[in-house]
Design goal:
Layout lengths: L2 H57 L9 H15 L4 E7 L4 E4 L7 H6 L6 E7 L2 E12 L2 E10 L1 H51 L14 H56 L6 H32 L5 E4 H18 L3 E6 L3 E4 L1 H17 L6 E8 L3 E8 L6 H4 L11 H6 L6 H11 L3 E7 L3 E12 L3
Parallel strand pairs: 7-9
Antiparallel strand pairs: 1-2, 1-5, 3-4, 4-5, 6-8, 8-12, 9-10, 10-12, 11-12
Length: 472
C-alpha cells in the first residue's frame, strides 16, 4: 500500500472516529440535560397537583367528617380540570387498588407503590404506544385512608428532538466526510510528492542516468532531505567518474604494458631456446636457460590472455549457427592426448542442436573448463561432457570428480587473477585469467555460466547458450 493511501485512510478514519465520539457525547449531553429538566418539572407538577388535591378535598369536608370515595373522585376531577391542559395525565387510586380517577392506560407499577412511605416520591421512565412519559408517584394520608397519585409528563418531544438532531448530525457527517476525504487525498498527494520525486530520481540513477537530479524547492524537512539527496548523488557521480577514469587508465596501462612486453619476451624466449640447443653449454647454464625459457613462455601466455580480456570488452561478435555435436567432438579430440597421458577419461553425451555462437571463442571456453578440470585431478580422474536442449537454450555441462572448490570461493573464481590453489596454479602455468575471459565470452554470447562444487567430490560447470534451431 502506498504512503499516500495510508495517510489518506488514517486521516479519514481519525476524522470519522473523532466526530462520531464528539457527536455522541454532545447529543447525549443535550438529551440528558433536557431530560433532567423535564424530571424536575414533572416532580414539581406532581407536588403542586397533590397539594391542590389535598387542599380542595379538605375544603369540601367538615372536621371529623368521613372522606368517602365520592368526595375523593369529586376532588380529583376538580383538580384535574386545572392541570390536564398542560399535557399531564393523572391516575389516583387507593391502597386497596381502587381507581378513583385515571385518564391514561398504563399498567400499575406495584414495586413503585411499595417504595412510597411518608412524603417520598418515586420517579421512572415509561414508554407506551410510541410515547415516552416521566411517571412521578406520590402519596398522601386522608384520615385513615392512604391515597396514591401517579402523574405522567409526556416527554416524547425530547426523544423526537434527539432523533432529529441525530439525523441532522448524520447528514453533516456525510458532507464533512466527503469534503474531508477530498482535502485529505489532496494533502496526502502533496505531502508524498517529494518522496515520489526522490524515488523516481533514485530509479533513474540506478538505471545509469547519474546526471538526473530532483527539482524541488521547499523550506521544510522535505526540502532538506531533497538537498541532501542531491548532494549524495553529486558525490556518488563524482566517485563513479573517478573510478571509471581510474579503471580506464588502468586498462590502458595494462594494454600498453602487455603490448610492449611482447617484443622483449619474444627475444628472451628466442635466446633462451638458442642457449638450450647449444650442446657445449654447461649443466648449470642449461638449467638457467630452461628456467628463463619456461618463465618467458608463462609471461607470454599471460600477456596474450590480458590482451584477450581487454579486446573482448570492446568486441562485437558476429554470431552464426553452429552445430553442437561436431564442436564437442572436435574439442574432445584436441584434449584427448594430454588427458590420456595423465590417465584421465573423458566421455561425451550430447543431443543434436545448433547454437548462435562464434565457434572459436566457445571452443576456447569449453577447453579452458576441461583444462581446469584436469588440473583439479591427480590422475585417474573422469570428465563428462553433456549437451541437452531446453526451451530457448542449449545447455553444455562439464563435470569432473576432482578436488572441488570451497563454497566461500565459488563466487570469486571468475574474477581476474583469482586462483583457488595459487601454488598449484603457478606450477601448472596458470595466471588466474582463464575463467574471467570465459565469463566475458559467454556474456558476449548472451548466455550464462553457473558453478556447482563440493570439496572432495568434484565440480560441475553449466553453460547456457542461445539456441539457433532444434534438429529433429
Amino acid at each position: 500500500m502506498r504512503i499516500s493511501t495510508k495517510i489518506f485512510i488514517s486521516t479519514v478514519l481519525a476524522m470519522i472516529i473523532s466526530f462520531s465520539i464528539a457527536g455522541f457525547v454532545l447529543l447525549s449531553a443535550f438529551f440528558k440535560s433536557g431530560y433532567e429538566q423535564a424530571v424536575r418539572a414533572a416532580i414539581d407538577s406532581n407536588w403542586l397537583i397533590l397539594n391542590s388535591f389535598t387542599s380542595y378535598m379538605r375544603s369540601q369536608t367538615a372536621p371529623d367528617t368521613e372522606i368517602t370515595d365520592e368526595i375523593i373522585k369529586e376532588s380529583v376531577e376538580a383538580v384535574t380540570d386545572m392541570f390536564t391542559e398542560d399535557g399531564i395525565r393523572l391516575r389516583v387510586y387507593g391502597e386497596d387498588g381502587t381507581v378513583f380517577y385515571s385518564n391514561i392506560d398504563i399498567p400499575f407499577q406495584e414495586e413503585v407503590r411499595q417504595q412510597l412511605t411518608g412524603t417520598q416520591i418515586a420517579c421512572l421512565s415509561v414508554e407506551q404506544d410510541n410515547h415516552h412519559y416521566i411517571q412521578v408517584s406520590s402519596s398522601m394520608t386522608a384520615e385513615d385512608r392512604r391515597i396514591y397519585m401517579d402523574s405522567f409528563q409526556d416527554v416524547t418531544y425530547l426523544y423526537q428532538t434527539r432523533q432529529k438532531q441525530l439525523t441532522i448530525y448524520n447528514r453533516v457527517i456525510l458532507v464533512l466526510f466527503f469534503v474531508y476525504s477530498v482535502i485529505s487525498f489532496a494533502m496526502a498527494r502533496f505531502l508524498v510528492h517529494p518522496i515520489r520525486s526522490i524515488s523516481r530520481t533514485a530509479s533513474r540513477i540506478a538505471d545509469g542516468n547519474l546526471e538526473y537530479r530532483i527539482r524541488l524547492k521547499s523550506q521544510d524537512e522535505f526540502g532538506e532531505m531533497v538537498y541532501n539527496f542531491n548532494r549524495m548523488a553529486d558525490s556518488l557521480a563524482g566517485k563513479i567518474e573517478e573510478l571509471e577514469d581510474a579503471a580506464r587508465k588502468q586498462e590502458e596501462f595494462v594494454g600498453n604494458f602487455t603490448h610492449e612486453l611482447k617484443t622483449p619476451l619474444t627475444s628472451i624466449i628466442g635466446y633462451a631456446d638458442l642457449m638450450r640447443s647449444d650442446e657445449s653449454i654447461s649443466e648449470m647454464n642449461l638449467m638457467c636457460a630452461n628456467y628463463i625459457f619456461q618463465e618467458g613462455k608463462r609471461l607470454e601466455s599471460l600477456s596474450f590472455r590480458l590482451l584477450d580480456l581487454i579486446v573482448l570488452k570492446k568486441q562485437e561478435l558476429q554470431l552464426k549457427s553452429v552445430s553442437v555435436i561436431p564442436l564437442l567432438k572436435s574439442i574432445q579430440a584436441t584434449v584427448l592426448p594430454i588427458l590420456t597421458k595423465e590417465r584421465i577419461q573423458i566421455t561425451m553425451k550430447a543431443q543434436k542442436g545448433r547454437i548462435m555462437a562464434e565457434p572459436e571463442l566457445i571452443k576456447t571456453v569449453i577447453m579452458n573448463l576441461i583444462d581446469n578440470a584436469r588440473k583439479a585431478m591427480n590422475g585417474h580422474g573422469k570428465i563428462v561432457l553433456w549437451g541437452t536442449m531446453e526451451a530457448d537454450f542449449y545447455v553444455i555441462t562439464v563435470q569432473d570428480n576432482g578436488k572441488g572448490i570451497p563454497k566461500a570461493q565459488i563466487d570469486k573464481i571468475t574474477e581476474a587473477f583469482y586462483m583457488v590453489d595459487k601454488s598449484r596454479s603457478r606450477e601448472q602455468g596458470g595466471a588466474g585469467l582463464g575463467l574471467a575471459i570465459c565469463l566475458q565470452i559467454v556474456q558476449l554470447h548472451e548466455g550464462s555460466m553457473q558453478f556447482e562444487s563440493e570439496e572432495g567430490k568434484g565440480t560441475r560447470v553449466t553453460l547456457r547458450l542461445r539456441l539457433a534451431e532444434k534438429l529433429a
